[in-house]
Specification:
By secondary structure, this protein is mostly beta strands. The protein folds into 8 domains: 74 residues, no CATH class; 149 residues, Immunoglobulin-like (Sandwich), CATH 2.60.40; 92 residues, OB fold (Dihydrolipoamide Acetyltransferase, E2P), CATH 2.40.50; 97 residues, OB fold (Dihydrolipoamide Acetyltransferase, E2P) (Beta Barrel); 93 residues, Beta Barrel (OB fold (Dihydrolipoamide Acetyltransferase, E2P)); 97 residues, Nucleic acid-binding proteins (OB fold (Dihydrolipoamide Acetyltransferase, E2P), Beta Barrel); 162 residues, Lamin Tail domain (Immunoglobulin-like, Sandwich); 71 residues, Macroglobulin (MG2) domain (Immunoglobulin-like), CATH 2.60.40. Helices cover 2% and strands 39% of the residues. It contains 4 helices and 63 strands. Strands 48, 49, 53, 54, 59, 60, 61, 62 and 63 form a 9-stranded antiparallel β-sheet that branches. Strands 26, 27, 28, 29, 30, 31 and 32 form a 7-stranded mixed β-sheet that branches. The termini are far apart.
Length: 949
């Protein structure tokens, strides 16, 4: 006998020859050739025996089917069997441990992996095998399979950390292949992949930088296929000859190393026969089926295939939860999983171990809704296989039954449920949204351990225990061992305001801090990827960006209004502070967002906040729509210019650009790729609905009605001008500004001052303490006229020249409202203007309310008669209707020659009307939006706004 499979000290033959003694008849290897020999004196007759070592520390495991040529099976025992002649000595032939024949001798080579089978079948029935010809298991880490398609026009690759046992194969198939292929495959790959090859695609196996085997000629397009023996690489199954002991990098010789079979011949898949090492060929299992072909349920949760007999090939994925002399373990093939259950162990397989590869023949059964396979026979193919990756789930149902799964971010509902040693219990766990059942089985090492004190992830197999029909409830997860429960280290919870500070370089003060944050989701997923996610959260005070490619976080379906708990590390992307997420837990849905804050500029304070920029127009409309990942557009409100970013992941992307003035709501962002990260701020609208036409802008009906540019007063600087409200609405000029003929908005800014309809106020080029003296000079009571002194203005009081000048008024956005201009002014006389800003002449004592002051000046500041508080009658001026659908009227009130210019918000002239009269009818034919109406006369220009619907 040769090649004992385990380490040992002494080898023996035990059986009916010696009363099954484990140490009576020792075999020895005197010449060191690994063949153990011995002599036993026997009477003629029949005997059962087997080879053992170290007084039954180990023994042969003989198979009643595979080893039937040299064994006898009685009950549950299979032993070697021989009949001895009484008349002559008998010499038994050399046999291999646990085999009926001698061990094969490996030829030269046999020291490196190579391709053993290639199937290019119909449709997606394609697979390729890699064979391990060595005496030891080999990890596939470091190996790569390349597909060189169509002469190298494209390349697919495959890598894995799986291990191939000695004499075993690793089989890679297309995931749409026939169920019988998927039942045997180790990996099933989605298109595109190396498993989706055609006859003209070369396949290459490499280790590190070295090529060790090829099928076809990489980089060469053979047309439809390469010739192989009597067939080709197209529409055939190729099986490496048993005499081949190593791969070939030269296809001229490698093409002759294959046996060729017809398309869709799958007889040899899952194993390979080679002279390198003797591996007893596995039994032929032509009836092996994929688990997903027989585990469907009816409406009552009863297995459709109940009672059917099935062959399966599985990898064991759990411990044996039975704990007695029977089975209750789980296994998976490439399509699904199933529970293996029986009251008693089957002969030759008593210790189910994760990673075992098994062929099992059994009856489809069911217990409490859990579909099972009750084995009639089990064949152990090999051990130490890599387990399938657990799928990440957030709920339990029929789809998770018997599958290896992982639940992320759960907590115990009631820690007192945790089992003591020797107890099996159900424990309720929750992720804040769903409450699930975790089953702790006493056959694990979990019972009696400390209960998780905080958040944890759990890996295990899905199961079901439903005691009544319909069997559609009672789903569970069964962790297999204590290490299946990963308890998170303590993670502090912060408000966003505690971690969103930045330093002078614009980098987070809390960079790399690992923490929890809770907030409401704003906007949409800006990543646009199935494997990554990016969104904004806001805790009611501050906002923060997020990004993650971690599966547990990327699986979150971004929905505005969700309340979430996020865990991760504080980082930044081009200045945008964000948390790099490890997990997202949904706490609630349908929450209300805070209202957007109206802003006129963007900076660090607007980052990740919901903001609104009003009355915007595009600086350059051609910026709209250029950019595959999105586009940035400069927008302005007439005074401030900011960047609006249209991301490719929002529904606004690809739509028609807005026309006219608009308001935009969005999330503040930043994109500054160089240090210091203190610029590049943006506003990112979330939806089409975030851009709306600008609200109708009220144009205050005020005019500079009188200017005193050369006062004769000697007591103080008494130059002034008058602002008159000729409309029917109170006007607050806070934030408005004025200038002389330099026409620069913001030069001199007014404080908050209201002007009632028909009221006129005075803007005085002197300090506040001289207001009453000014009124007394003009024979007016103290406080009878509202006066804005020069020390109440922000900015200087531009001087007003007698040699021609004027006053321009601007609103708080810097938009021009009106101006009143004069070519010359007489010392001591104010110049007067009508409500259009048209110059009407010098003030005349006794005319239009003008009179002479105590200092000899002529005018009517405040439009009051001396020593009274009665306003002069106002002249009504109007533009109507406003908003308009096209036709509107500008009412001037006086007969005058005019030019009316219609200008859009970009500054383009849309229409011009000229004439003489006191009313102007205009039919505006243009796109909806806000337009400026400029009424120009010889002495004045007045600007109003009209909204076209």
């Amino acid at each position: 006998m040769s090649t004992v499979s385990s380490s040992f000290t002494n080898v023996y033959v035990s059986g009916t020859i010696n009363g099954w003694s484990g140490n009576s008849n020792q075999l020895t290897d005197a010449d060191g050739d690994d063949v153990y020999e011995g002599t036993v004196s026997l009477m003629g007759g029949s005997y059962e025996y087997k080879f053992t070592y170290d007084n039954w520390a180990g023994q042969e495991a003989l198979d009643a089917t595979l080893d039937s040529a040299c064994t006898l099976t009685t009950g549950n025992f299979t032993n070697r069997y021989i009949t001895i002649s009484a008349s002559a000595d008998t010499t038994l032939p050399e046999v291999c441990w646990e085999e009926c024949t001698a061990c094969a001798t490996a030829p030269a080579g046999c020291d490196e992996l190579f391709f053993s089978e290639y199937a290019e079948g119909s449709s997606n029935n394609k697979y390729i095998e890699i064979y391990n010809p060595t005496a030891n298991a080999i990890s596939l880490s470091g190996y790569t399979v390349y597909q060189s398609g169509n002469g190298g026009s494209y390349t697919n690759t495959f890598t894995t950390n799986a291990t191939i046992a000695s004499g075993d194969v690793y089989m890679i198939a297309a995931n749409q292949a026939d169920a019988s292929i998927l039942a045997v495959a180790d990996t099933a790959m989605a298109y595109p992949s190396i498993a989706h090859f055609n006859g003209d695609d070369a396949m290459i196996l490499t280790y590190g930088m070295d090529t060790i085997d090829v099928i076809g000629v990489p980089g060469v397009d053979p047309g439809s296929s390469w010739t192989v023996g009597t067939g080709s690489t197209a529409n055939h199954t190729l099986v490496r000859k048993a005499t081949v002991s190593e791969g070939s990098t030269d296809w001229t010789t490698g093409a002759g190393e294959w046996d060729v079979y017809a398309s869709n011949t799958w007889t040899y898949m899952g194993a390979h026969t080679s002279n390198c090492i003797y591996v007893a060929p596995p039994p032929s299992f032509p009836d092996v089926v994929a688990i997903n072909t027989f585990n469907s349920m009816d409406a009552s949760g009863v297995a459709d295939s109940l009672g059917a007999m099935k062959w399966v090939k599985i990898i064991v994925t759990s411990i044996d939860f039975d704990g007695n002399a029977g089975y209750s373990f789980f296994g998976e093939d490439a399509t699904d999983g199933i529970n293996i259950w029986n009251f008693a162990d089957k002969s030759g397989y008593s210790s189910p171990t994760m990673g075992d590869s098994l062929f099992i023949y059994g009856e489809v059964a069911q217990f409490r809704g859990l579909t099972e396979l009750k084995p009639d026979s089990i064949y152990l193919l090999n051990q130490g296989n890599t387990l399938p990756m657990p799928s990440i789930e957030s709920s339990l149902d029929e789809s998770t039954e018997s599958e290896l799964i992982q639940l992320i971010g759960f907590n115990l509902v009631d820690p007192t449920q945790w089992p003591s040693t020797g107890s099996s219990v159900n424990v309720d766990i929750t992720n804040g949204t769903d409450t699930l059942t975790m089953r702790i089985d006493s056959d694990t090492d979990i019972d009696g351990s400390p209960a998780p004190a905080g958040t944890f992830d759990v890996t295990g197999v899905g199961s079901q225990y439903d005691s009544s029909s319909p069997y559609t409830e009672g789903y569970q997860v069964l962790p297999r061992m204590l290490t299946d429960i990963f308890e998170y280290p303590f993670i502090p919870t912060y408000t966003i305001g505690q971690v969103d500070g930045v330093d002078t370089d614009g980098l987070p003060d809390s960079l790399n801090v690992y923490c929890k944050v809770e907030g409401i989701v704003m906007g949409v997923d800006m990543q646009g990827s199935a494997t990554a996610v990016s969104f904004t959260v806001h805790d009611g005070v501050d906002g923060m960006g997020t990004y993650s490619s971690a599966p547990a976080a990327a699986a979150y379906n971004v929905t505005e209004g969700d309340e979430v708990r996020i865990i991760g590390k504080i980082g930044h992307f081009n200045g945008l502070l964000q948390m790099v997420l490890d997990s997202v837990a949904l706490l609630s849905t349908g929450n209300t967002l805070q209202s957007p804050t109206v802003v006129t500029s963007l900076d660090e304070s607007t980052e990740s906040e919901l903001i609104k920029f009003e009355n915007a127009t595009m600086v350059d409309p051609t910026q709209w729509g250029s950019g595959s990942s999105g586009y940035s557009i400069d927008i302005t409100n007439g005074t401030d210019t900011v960047v609006m970013r249209i991301d490719a992941d929002v529904d606004l992307y690809g739509t028609t650009a807005p026309t006219g003035a608009f308001d935009v709501v969005g999330i503040g962002g930043q994109y500054d790729f160089s240090s210091p990260h203190t610029s590049g701020y943006q506003i990112l609208p979330r939806y089409i609905a975030d851009i709306t036409p600008a609200a109708a802008v009220y144009v205050p009906e005020i005019v500079v009605s009188e200017i005193m540019a050369g006062s004769n007063s000697t007591a103080y600087n008494a130059d002034w001008f008058e602002i008159y409200n000729y409309g029917d609405t109170v006007v607050n000029i806070g934030g408005f500004s004025w200038d002389d003929e330099s026409d620069i908005s913001g030069s001199s800014v007014f404080p908050s001052v209201t002007i009632s309809p028909g009221e006129a106020i005075v803007v005085l080029d002197d300090v506040s303490t001289n207001k009453d003296a000014f009124l007394a000079e003009w024979k007016l009571n103290p406080g009878s006229v509202t006066i804005v002194a020069n020390d109440e203005l922000t900015g200087s009081f531009p001087s007003l020249s007698q040699n021609g000048d004027g006053v321009y008024l601007y609103d708080a956005t810097g938009a021009a409202l009106t101006n009143s201009l004069y070519s010359a002014a007489t010392a001591g006389y104010s110049v007067e203007f009508d409500t259009t800003g048209a110059f009407t002449g010098d003030a005349v004592d006794g005319t239009n309310g003008a009179y002479t002051s105590l200092e000899g000046d002529v005018g009517s500041p405040g439009n009051l008669t001396p020593n009274s508080n009665v306003y002069e009658q106002s002249i009504v001026r109007n533009i109507y209707p406003n908003p308009t659908s096209g036709m509107f009227t500008v009412e001037l009130g006086v007969e005058i020659e005019y030019t009316v210019q219609i200008v859009n918000m970009v500054g383009e002239t849309i229409a011009v009307e000229q004439g003489v009269g006191n009313a102007i009818s205009i039919d505006l034919k243009a796109a909806a939006g806000t337009y400026l109406v400029k009424v120009v006369t010889d002495q004045s220009t007045q600007t109003l706004r009209v909204v076209l619907q």
